[in-house]
Write a structure and sequence with these properties.
single chain; CBS-domain; 2 domains; 4-stranded mixed beta sheet; two-stranded antiparallel sheet
């Protein structure tokens, strides 16, 4: 890394210039090497073709949620309060881990009992890399996209893959 003050060529990742002591941490930013990295680092969630979220109330039954997921080909539903604010997310994974084989009469139980409360969320202004990082760290396949705490979309791993595939084709 070249010091902007004295032009000394420092070892990449150095916090300060070996010659003059200039702080170099603000210069140690990743640089995209191709259009995919550039897209992930610079483009926002708004660049994706987000599906509108399918919402339901916490009192909705697991049966109603399962029907909605099957009929609409969804992997996750947003659970909202009466004002439309996000309370939780109910996903295929919630069904498999928290419901299947554990509850005999689960169909009539409320989704609030099995949803993931207060889920990690994204905004339309988050970069794709930041959003993908949130998904990776948390092990999430779906991430609610919110505005004023109300879900306006859902980012899925499939959405990210489609975006990257489109970049590879073009």
């Amino acid at each position: 890394m070249i010091c902007p003050t004295c032009l000394h060529d420092n070892v990449p990742g150095s916090d300060e210039c070996e010659k003059c002591g200039q702080n170099l941490t603000q210069l140690d930013q990743p640089i995209p090497r191709d259009r995919i990295e550039r897209s992930l680092m610079e483009e926002k969630v708004s660049a994706l073709q987000l599906r509108a979220p399918f919402t339901l109330r916490p009192t909705a039954t697991v049966q109603e949620a399962m029907r909605a997921m099957l009929e609409n080909d969804l992997g996750a539903l947003m659970v909202v309060d009466k004002d439309g604010k996000l309370l939780g997310i109910f996903s295929e994974r919630d069904l498999l881990i928290k419901v299947a084989g554990l509850h005999d009469r689960f169909a009539e139980l409320p989704v609030a009992q099995f949803m993931t409360p207060d889920p990690v969320r994204a905004t339309v202004d988050d970069t794709l890399a930041f959003t993908l990082h949130k998904m990776d760290i948390g092990g999430y396949r779906h991430l609610p996209v919110v505005e004023d705490d109300r879900p306006i979309g859902v980012v899925s791993v499939r959405d990210m893959l489609k975006h990257i595939t489109r970049l590879c084709r073009d």
